[in-house]
Structure formats: C-alpha cells, structure tokens
Specification:
7 helices; DHBP synthase; globular; single chain; alpha+beta; eight-stranded mixed beta sheet
C-alpha cells in the first residue's frame, strides 16, 4: 500500500492521506500542474493557499531555506503538531501553494507515525488540504471523503477515525501572530505558544 501511494505521488497523482487532524487530499508539490489538478478535484479556488506538509521541520527548511533563523525556531517549537504556520516566502518558492499571496507559504508537520510517516519520509513533502468539498465537513474517516474525490485519487491510506478538527492556522508574516483559522488548538493558546517560542513570553 505504501509503495502504491508513493508511486502515485511521484507520478503527480492525488492521494488521500490521514493526518493528526483530518484526512487530507495530497499531491506532489513540485509542479504547478499537480497543484492545479488537486485544486480542480477539490473545487478549490486558485486564490486559496495550500500547505506544504513534511515529516519534519528539517525537510521544510531544505525546501524553503529562507525559513532558517527565527522562523525555524518557532516551527521547531510548535511542530510536529496540529498547526499550519504561514511564513514569509520572499523567493516565492512553490508559488502555486500561496494562492493570492505567493510571497508567503504555509507549512505543516503533523504528529504522525506508521504508514503516513513512511510515505512522507520517502517523498520528502506533499501539498495537502482537507479532503472535502468547499464548505463541506472535514473528513474524520475515509468514508467521509466525498465519492467524487475518493474515486479520482490514485491511492489512499486508512488510519481509522481521526479527531476531525483541522489544524489551527497562524499567520506569522507580520509583527504579531494572527489566527487565520481556529482549529485543533485554541487561538489564544496558539498565539501564546508562538510568543514563547519567539522569546516574547505568553502575554
């Protein structure tokens, strides 16, 4: 099963992967055409961003070297975990992932083990968004994934029932952290964690 999912990702096909929050629709992030295919399958507007997901922060820094320094310190303090962190992306790496803000990039390292961790270890990173239709419920089981999405995917991994609440999204591109989406971690707690990691305390 792992080999089939890895092969599908390397070929640019979309797959379904469980995370530490919900089931995700994932694809190879390295070519814009793969991103467009994923967006079309989900019915997602091109202006919407999608996260770069890896097995560990080190892989993210290799792919986006500009994260080195303060951003990496914050990322290592919060990840792995149920966060998506949006950082500046001045070199516009993977610009098709930033949506209307190509000079930013959202990154995620889920707390994973088993088959999904093995897949990420082999492919390095994926682009991923929740495996639902726009406005639809976040899938906590594979059977919750809409049929038109699931049938179009070239592979899937089943981890049973997941928590079902998506990651908390934090915008760290400005002077102060900003909660873009309240998720698995309450916004106040998430901001406090960022400030502590940045050496600013938890006001």
């Amino acid at each position: 099963m792992i080999d089939a999912v890895v092969a599908a990702l390397e070929a640019g096909a979309p797959v379904l992967l469980p995370t530490d929050t919900v089931y995700g629709l994932a694809a190879n992030p390295r070519r814009e055409e793969y991103a467009r295919r994923l967006y079309a399958l989900k019915g997602r507007a091109a202006e919407q961003p999608t996260a770069l997901v890896a097995a560990d922060v080190g892989v993210l820094v290799e792919l986006v070297p500009e994260l080195r320094g303060a951003a990496e310190d914050v990322a290592r303090a919060l990840l792995p975990g149920p966060y998506t962190l949006v950082f500046p992306n001045p070199r516009r790496r993977f610009p098709w992932l930033g949506g209307s803000r190509a000079d930013t990039i959202g990154v995620r390292v889920p707390a994973l083990d088993g088959e999904v961790a093995a897949v990420l270890a082999r492919v390095g990173a994926v682009m991923a968004t929740s495996a639902n239709l726009p406005g639809g419920p976040d899938p906590r089981r594979l059977d919750d994934v809409p049929a038109q999405i699931r049938s179009a995917c070239a592979g899937e991994l089943d981890a049973g029932e997941l928590p079902g609440t998506p990651s908390t999204v934090l915008d760290l591109t400005g002077d102060e952290p900003r909660v873009l989406r309240e998720g698995a971690v309450p916004g106040i707690e998430a901001v406090a964690c960022v400030r502590a990691a940045a050496g600013g305390g938890a006001e």
